[in-house]
Amino acid sequence: MNIIVCIKQVPGTSNVKVDPVTGVLIRDGVQSKMNPYDLYALETGLQLKEKSNGKVTVISMGPPAALAVLKEAIYMGADEGILISDRKFGGADVLATAYTISQAINTIDDVDLILTGKQTTDGDTGQVGPETAEFLNLPHFGYVTNVEIKNDKLQFISNLETKVMKANITLPCLLCIEGEINTPRLPSYKRKVKFGSCENQIKIMSFEDMKDQNENNYGLKGSATQVEKIFQPKKTTDRLVLQGTKEQMAKDLLNILRERKFI
Ligand SMILES: Cc1cc2nc3c(=O)[nH]c(=O)nc-3n(C[C@H](O)[C@H](O)[C@H](O)COP(=O)(O)OP(=O)(O)OC[C@H]3O[C@@H](n4cnc5c(N)ncnc54)[C@H](O)[C@@H]3O)c2cc1C
Fold first, then answer.
1. Which of 37, 53, 102, 161 could cross-link with 135 by S-S, CB 3.0 to 4.6 Å?
2. pTM of whole model > 0.85?
3. Are 115 and 6 in contact (CB under 8 A)?
Protein backbone atom coordinates (compact mmCIF):
# COMPACT_ATOMS: atom_id res chain seq x y z
CA MET A 1 0.00 0.00 0.00
CA ASN A 2 1.37 3.37 -1.05
CA ILE A 3 0.49 5.74 1.80
CA ILE A 4 0.91 9.52 2.02
CA VAL A 5 0.72 11.23 5.39
CA CYS A 6 0.36 15.03 5.52
CA ILE A 7 2.14 16.61 8.47
CA LYS A 8 2.40 20.24 9.48
CA GLN A 9 4.92 22.04 11.67
CA VAL A 10 3.14 24.13 14.30
CA PRO A 11 4.33 26.36 17.16
CA GLY A 12 5.28 24.25 20.17
CA THR A 13 3.67 26.68 22.59
CA SER A 14 0.33 28.41 22.93
CA ASN A 15 2.19 31.54 24.02
CA VAL A 16 2.76 32.88 20.47
CA LYS A 17 2.95 36.66 20.19
CA VAL A 18 1.42 38.74 17.41
CA ASP A 19 3.29 41.71 15.92
CA PRO A 20 1.05 44.64 16.94
CA VAL A 21 1.92 46.61 13.77
CA THR A 22 1.74 43.95 11.03
CA GLY A 23 -0.66 41.57 12.79
CA VAL A 24 1.56 38.63 11.76
CA LEU A 25 2.53 35.83 14.14
CA ILE A 26 6.06 36.25 15.52
CA ARG A 27 7.48 32.81 14.72
CA ASP A 28 11.17 33.68 15.24
CA GLY A 29 12.59 32.01 18.31
CA VAL A 30 9.36 30.11 18.88
CA GLN A 31 9.86 26.39 19.36
CA SER A 32 8.11 24.25 16.76
CA LYS A 33 6.82 20.68 16.73
CA MET A 34 4.82 18.27 14.60
CA ASN A 35 1.09 18.99 14.79
CA PRO A 36 -0.08 16.52 17.50
CA TYR A 37 -2.95 15.07 15.42
CA ASP A 38 -0.49 14.34 12.61
CA LEU A 39 1.44 12.02 14.94
CA TYR A 40 -1.70 9.83 15.12
CA ALA A 41 -2.14 9.96 11.33
CA LEU A 42 1.52 8.99 10.92
CA GLU A 43 1.27 6.11 13.39
CA THR A 44 -1.85 4.88 11.53
CA GLY A 45 0.09 5.04 8.25
CA LEU A 46 3.08 3.20 9.74
CA GLN A 47 0.87 0.41 11.13
CA LEU A 48 -0.92 -0.01 7.77
CA LYS A 49 2.45 -0.02 6.01
CA GLU A 50 3.66 -2.81 8.29
CA LYS A 51 0.52 -4.87 7.65
CA SER A 52 0.57 -4.37 3.87
CA ASN A 53 4.31 -4.33 3.26
CA GLY A 54 3.81 -0.85 1.90
CA LYS A 55 5.49 2.52 1.88
CA VAL A 56 4.88 5.77 3.77
CA THR A 57 5.72 9.16 2.29
CA VAL A 58 5.31 12.19 4.54
CA ILE A 59 4.48 15.55 2.99
CA SER A 60 4.74 18.93 4.62
CA MET A 61 4.10 22.37 3.16
CA GLY A 62 6.01 25.11 4.90
CA PRO A 63 9.28 27.00 5.20
CA PRO A 64 12.67 25.16 5.21
CA ALA A 65 12.40 24.82 9.01
CA ALA A 66 9.59 22.29 8.42
CA LEU A 67 12.32 19.81 7.39
CA ALA A 68 12.57 19.04 11.10
CA VAL A 69 9.12 17.40 11.23
CA LEU A 70 9.84 15.38 8.08
CA LYS A 71 13.08 14.11 9.64
CA GLU A 72 11.24 13.23 12.84
CA ALA A 73 8.70 11.27 10.77
CA ILE A 74 11.50 9.37 9.01
CA TYR A 75 13.10 8.55 12.37
CA MET A 76 9.69 7.21 13.42
CA GLY A 77 9.49 4.93 10.38
CA ALA A 78 8.39 6.86 7.26
CA ASP A 79 10.31 5.92 4.11
CA GLU A 80 10.44 9.26 2.31
CA GLY A 81 9.58 12.90 2.82
CA ILE A 82 8.55 15.77 0.58
CA LEU A 83 8.88 19.39 1.64
CA ILE A 84 6.65 21.66 -0.44
CA SER A 85 8.42 24.96 -0.10
CA ASP A 86 8.58 28.07 -2.25
CA ARG A 87 8.11 31.79 -1.63
CA LYS A 88 5.31 31.58 -4.21
CA PHE A 89 3.35 29.40 -1.77
CA GLY A 90 3.65 31.96 1.08
CA GLY A 91 0.48 33.43 2.58
CA ALA A 92 -1.63 30.48 1.46
CA ASP A 93 -5.01 30.11 3.10
CA VAL A 94 -6.73 26.72 3.49
CA LEU A 95 -7.89 26.64 -0.14
CA ALA A 96 -4.43 27.41 -1.56
CA THR A 97 -2.75 25.07 0.95
CA ALA A 98 -5.03 22.17 0.00
CA TYR A 99 -4.60 22.92 -3.71
CA THR A 100 -0.80 22.99 -3.43
CA ILE A 101 -0.73 19.75 -1.42
CA SER A 102 -3.02 18.11 -3.99
CA GLN A 103 -0.75 19.26 -6.82
CA ALA A 104 2.25 17.71 -5.05
CA ILE A 105 0.36 14.43 -4.50
CA ASN A 106 -0.61 14.47 -8.20
CA THR A 107 3.06 14.03 -9.07
CA ILE A 108 3.24 10.73 -7.12
CA ASP A 109 2.25 7.52 -8.94
CA ASP A 110 -0.20 4.93 -7.62
CA VAL A 111 -1.20 6.53 -4.33
CA ASP A 112 -3.56 4.24 -2.38
CA LEU A 113 -4.23 6.19 0.78
CA ILE A 114 -3.76 9.74 2.03
CA LEU A 115 -3.94 10.39 5.77
CA THR A 116 -4.19 13.75 7.48
CA GLY A 117 -4.69 14.78 11.06
CA LYS A 118 -8.13 15.90 12.21
CA GLN A 119 -6.96 19.52 12.57
CA THR A 120 -3.95 21.60 13.45
CA THR A 121 -3.24 23.38 16.71
CA ASP A 122 -2.50 26.70 14.97
CA GLY A 123 -4.81 27.20 11.94
CA ASP A 124 -7.26 24.74 13.48
CA THR A 125 -9.78 24.73 10.60
CA GLY A 126 -9.83 20.97 9.92
CA GLN A 127 -10.46 21.77 6.26
CA VAL A 128 -7.16 20.94 4.56
CA GLY A 129 -7.82 17.17 4.46
CA PRO A 130 -11.33 17.25 2.92
CA GLU A 131 -10.37 20.04 0.49
CA THR A 132 -7.27 18.14 -0.65
CA ALA A 133 -9.45 15.07 -1.31
CA GLU A 134 -11.93 17.17 -3.28
CA PHE A 135 -9.13 18.61 -5.45
CA LEU A 136 -7.91 15.06 -6.09
CA ASN A 137 -11.49 13.86 -6.69
CA LEU A 138 -11.11 11.14 -4.04
CA PRO A 139 -13.62 9.73 -1.54
CA HIS A 140 -12.83 10.91 1.98
CA PHE A 141 -14.00 10.65 5.57
CA GLY A 142 -13.18 12.36 8.87
CA TYR A 143 -13.13 11.70 12.63
CA VAL A 144 -11.61 8.27 11.96
CA THR A 145 -10.85 6.27 15.11
CA ASN A 146 -9.94 2.89 13.55
CA VAL A 147 -8.74 1.62 10.16
CA GLU A 148 -8.38 -2.00 8.98
CA ILE A 149 -7.37 -3.36 5.58
CA LYS A 150 -10.20 -5.50 4.06
CA ASN A 151 -9.10 -6.97 0.71
CA ASP A 152 -8.96 -4.04 -1.73
CA LYS A 153 -10.91 -1.74 0.62
CA LEU A 154 -10.42 -0.14 3.99
CA GLN A 155 -12.84 -0.61 6.84
CA PHE A 156 -12.94 2.37 9.16
CA ILE A 157 -14.77 3.60 12.22
CA SER A 158 -15.72 7.25 12.44
CA ASN A 159 -16.87 8.92 15.64
CA LEU A 160 -19.52 11.46 14.65
CA GLU A 161 -20.29 12.43 18.27
CA THR A 162 -24.00 11.52 18.11
CA LYS A 163 -23.26 8.20 16.39
CA VAL A 164 -20.35 5.93 15.60
CA MET A 165 -20.17 4.75 12.00
CA LYS A 166 -18.41 1.63 10.69
CA ALA A 167 -18.04 1.61 6.90
CA ASN A 168 -15.91 0.50 3.98
CA ILE A 169 -14.18 2.91 1.64
CA THR A 170 -12.58 2.10 -1.71
CA LEU A 171 -8.99 2.95 -2.49
CA PRO A 172 -7.59 5.43 -3.32
CA CYS A 173 -9.10 7.61 -0.61
CA LEU A 174 -8.28 10.17 2.08
CA LEU A 175 -9.00 9.79 5.79
CA CYS A 176 -8.68 12.44 8.53
CA ILE A 177 -7.50 10.77 11.72
CA GLU A 178 -8.75 11.44 15.26
CA GLY A 179 -6.53 11.71 18.29
CA GLU A 180 -7.60 8.64 20.24
CA ILE A 181 -6.85 6.12 17.47
CA ASN A 182 -3.44 4.88 18.71
CA THR A 183 -0.32 5.67 20.71
CA PRO A 184 2.27 7.18 18.35
CA ARG A 185 5.70 5.57 18.55
CA LEU A 186 8.79 7.55 19.47
CA PRO A 187 11.49 8.35 16.90
CA SER A 188 14.01 5.49 16.77
CA TYR A 189 17.59 6.26 17.78
CA LYS A 190 18.81 3.60 15.33
CA ARG A 191 17.00 5.27 12.43
CA LYS A 192 18.33 8.66 13.54
CA VAL A 193 21.88 7.33 13.36
CA LYS A 194 21.16 5.52 10.06
CA PHE A 195 19.49 8.43 8.21
CA GLY A 196 21.14 11.45 9.89
CA SER A 197 20.15 14.59 7.95
CA CYS A 198 17.88 12.46 5.68
CA GLU A 199 19.22 14.19 2.57
CA ASN A 200 18.59 11.07 0.47
CA GLN A 201 15.13 10.54 1.91
CA ILE A 202 13.69 14.07 1.65
CA LYS A 203 12.92 15.86 -1.61
CA ILE A 204 12.06 19.57 -1.87
CA MET A 205 9.26 20.49 -4.26
CA SER A 206 8.89 24.04 -5.50
CA PHE A 207 6.50 25.82 -7.85
CA GLU A 208 8.49 24.55 -10.85
CA ASP A 209 7.68 20.93 -9.90
CA MET A 210 3.91 21.44 -9.99
CA LYS A 211 1.80 20.39 -12.99
CA ASP A 212 -0.30 23.54 -12.76
CA GLN A 213 2.05 26.39 -13.63
CA ASN A 214 -0.50 29.16 -13.06
CA GLU A 215 0.95 31.24 -10.20
CA ASN A 216 -2.49 32.67 -9.47
CA ASN A 217 -3.57 29.36 -7.95
CA TYR A 218 -0.91 29.37 -5.22
CA GLY A 219 0.03 31.35 -2.12
CA LEU A 220 -1.64 34.66 -1.38
CA LYS A 221 -2.82 35.02 -5.00
CA GLY A 222 -4.59 31.67 -4.87
CA SER A 223 -6.19 32.38 -1.48
CA ALA A 224 -9.91 33.03 -1.34
CA THR A 225 -9.63 34.66 2.10
CA GLN A 226 -7.46 37.45 3.42
CA VAL A 227 -6.59 38.13 7.03
CA GLU A 228 -7.61 41.70 7.76
CA LYS A 229 -6.31 41.79 11.31
CA ILE A 230 -4.93 39.34 13.85
CA PHE A 231 -4.99 40.35 17.48
CA GLN A 232 -4.88 38.78 20.88
CA PRO A 233 -8.13 39.16 22.77
CA LYS A 234 -7.81 41.38 25.84
CA LYS A 235 -7.69 39.45 29.07
CA THR A 236 -10.57 40.52 31.28
CA THR A 237 -10.16 39.92 34.97
CA ASP A 238 -13.68 40.91 36.03
CA ARG A 239 -14.88 38.61 38.76
CA LEU A 240 -18.12 38.50 40.58
CA VAL A 241 -18.43 36.44 43.75
CA LEU A 242 -21.97 35.35 44.56
CA GLN A 243 -22.92 34.92 48.16
CA GLY A 244 -25.88 33.50 50.06
CA THR A 245 -27.65 30.18 50.08
CA LYS A 246 -27.26 27.70 47.19
CA GLU A 247 -30.77 28.58 45.99
CA GLN A 248 -30.11 32.34 46.17
CA MET A 249 -26.76 32.02 44.35
CA ALA A 250 -28.39 29.90 41.62
CA LYS A 251 -31.14 32.54 41.21
CA ASP A 252 -28.61 35.39 41.07
CA LEU A 253 -26.51 33.50 38.51
CA LEU A 254 -29.58 32.88 36.35
CA ASN A 255 -30.47 36.59 36.46
CA ILE A 256 -26.93 37.62 35.51
CA LEU A 257 -26.84 35.17 32.58
CA ARG A 258 -30.25 36.50 31.40
CA GLU A 259 -29.15 40.15 31.79
CA ARG A 260 -26.02 39.48 29.74
CA LYS A 261 -28.11 37.60 27.17
CA PHE A 262 -26.14 34.35 27.52
CA ILE A 263 -29.46 32.53 27.86
C1 LIG B 1 -4.87 34.97 4.05
C2 LIG B 1 -4.15 33.96 4.87
C3 LIG B 1 -2.79 34.04 4.92
C4 LIG B 1 -2.10 33.11 5.65
N5 LIG B 1 -0.77 33.21 5.66
C6 LIG B 1 -0.07 32.33 6.33
C7 LIG B 1 1.34 32.42 6.34
O8 LIG B 1 1.93 33.31 5.73
N9 LIG B 1 2.02 31.49 7.04
C10 LIG B 1 1.36 30.49 7.72
O11 LIG B 1 2.03 29.66 8.33
N12 LIG B 1 0.03 30.38 7.72
C13 LIG B 1 -0.69 31.26 7.06
N14 LIG B 1 -2.02 31.15 7.06
C15 LIG B 1 -2.65 30.02 7.75
C16 LIG B 1 -2.71 28.85 6.78
O17 LIG B 1 -3.60 29.12 5.77
C18 LIG B 1 -3.20 27.60 7.46
O19 LIG B 1 -2.32 27.35 8.51
C20 LIG B 1 -3.17 26.45 6.47
O21 LIG B 1 -4.11 26.67 5.46
C22 LIG B 1 -3.50 25.12 7.10
O23 LIG B 1 -4.79 25.19 7.65
P24 LIG B 1 -5.02 24.65 9.09
O25 LIG B 1 -3.83 24.96 9.91
O26 LIG B 1 -6.34 25.15 9.53
O27 LIG B 1 -5.07 23.07 8.83
P28 LIG B 1 -6.19 22.01 9.21
O29 LIG B 1 -7.20 21.98 8.13
O30 LIG B 1 -6.67 22.20 10.62
O31 LIG B 1 -5.28 20.71 9.13
C32 LIG B 1 -5.81 19.40 8.94
C33 LIG B 1 -4.71 18.49 8.53
O34 LIG B 1 -4.25 18.86 7.22
C35 LIG B 1 -2.85 18.63 7.11
N36 LIG B 1 -2.16 19.90 6.87
C37 LIG B 1 -2.58 21.15 7.16
N38 LIG B 1 -1.66 22.06 6.78
C39 LIG B 1 -0.63 21.36 6.26
C40 LIG B 1 0.64 21.71 5.72
N41 LIG B 1 1.04 22.99 5.63
N42 LIG B 1 1.44 20.71 5.27
C43 LIG B 1 1.06 19.41 5.34
N44 LIG B 1 -0.11 19.03 5.86
C45 LIG B 1 -0.94 19.98 6.31
C46 LIG B 1 -2.40 18.01 8.45
O47 LIG B 1 -2.48 16.61 8.34
C48 LIG B 1 -3.46 18.52 9.41
O49 LIG B 1 -3.62 17.71 10.56
C50 LIG B 1 -2.76 32.07 6.36
C51 LIG B 1 -4.14 32.01 6.33
C52 LIG B 1 -4.83 32.96 5.60
C53 LIG B 1 -6.32 32.89 5.59
1. 102
2. yes
3. yes
Going along the chain from its start, the domains and CATH numbers come out as 2-217 (3.40.50.620)
Name the residue of 27, 30, 70, 93 whose CB sits within 8 Å of the most ligand 1 atoms, as the mutation to test its pocket.
Answer: 93
Distance 171 CA to ligand 1 centre (A): 26
Taking a C-beta distance cutoff of 8 angstroms, is the pair 130, 140 a contact? yes
User: In 107-245, which ranges are continuous DSSP H helix?
Assistant: 128-136, 189-195
Burial of 241 (0-12, 13-18, 19+ CB in 10 A): exposed
Radius of gyration of the chain (CA): 22
- Residue 174 in contact with residue 116, Cβ under 8 Å? yes
> Does the pLDDT at position 255 exceed 90?
yes
Write the pLDDT tens digit of every residue in 195-253: 999 999 999 999 999 999 999 999 999 999 987 877 777 877 788 899 999 999 999 99
- Asked which of 17-26, 39-48, 186-195 is least confident by mean pLDDT, the reply is 17-26
Residue type, 66: A
The beta-strand segments (E) located in the chain are 2-6, 9-11, 32-34, 55-61, 80-84, 113-117, 140-150, 153-159, 164-170, 173-177, 202-205
| Protein residue with its CA nearest to atom 21 in ligand 1 | 94
Residue (of 21, 33, 24) closest to 62 by Cα position: 33
96 CB less than 6 Å from ligand 1?
A: no
Rounded Cα distance, 128 and 3, in Å? 17
